Model the fold of this input.
Amino acid sequence: MSVTNDLVPHATSRRRAQRMSSILRYINEHGSARLTEIAQELGVSTATMRRDLADMDDQGLLIRSHGGARALDPATEVAVQLRDSRFKDAKLRIADHAARLLPEGQYSVAISGGTTAAAVARALTSRDDLSVATNALTTAAELATGSNLTVIMTGGFIRFNSLEAVGVLAEKTFSAINVGTAFLGTDGISARGGATTHNEIEARTNHAMVAQADRVVVVADGSKIGRATLAKVADLDEIDVLVTDSSADPDELTAIAAAGVDVQVVADALADS
Done:
């Protein structure tokens, strides 16, 4: 596989990656902030925050200003390594619910990239009767460890921001197989825009997966509902099921359901206890 020249956000440890994710969230929510303000919010030293902001500016994640930082365009894609972990519990519940939608017995599945889609892959590793095709390194890694599943990895160019293989090679792989259910992660899904992502090549590759599936299940936490990003992956009439959580905008869910999508909302963790 080849590798594209997208900028690679880099963090030297999981702890630092989580801190950088928190910085991004804070900056994006406030538009801009002073260095001392963010350091106090996160409980770190100003020296640590200065290093983080400098590195994040170098990586194109934000714009460093005198004494602080300001946000990029809100539509800017954040690399999968640094994506917000606030919704981790919701994503796990969504993934567990989505995994239970599959029938018993031999079955073929395709799974796209994204943290929620990777969680679906993790939920499927207890099975030994599935064939799973994916173009995502994160998803393949989940399936390749501790699993007896048959895993098909597409070729293509790797996008560092999403760790997905994209382009003609990936599209040809999906076009050559039959898929019972495709699990599609997305950067946004709305009644107006359908399922969308940040990159048009990635969108075209994922649509090749959608086109081969008998059933398409979008897995998206509530923050993605009502959001439309640059490139369309699928129209709503190509999507059979949307699995999300209760933080999603109910009016938007109603509009999506009115378009013929089976909207399934997983219960809150507290409701399950």
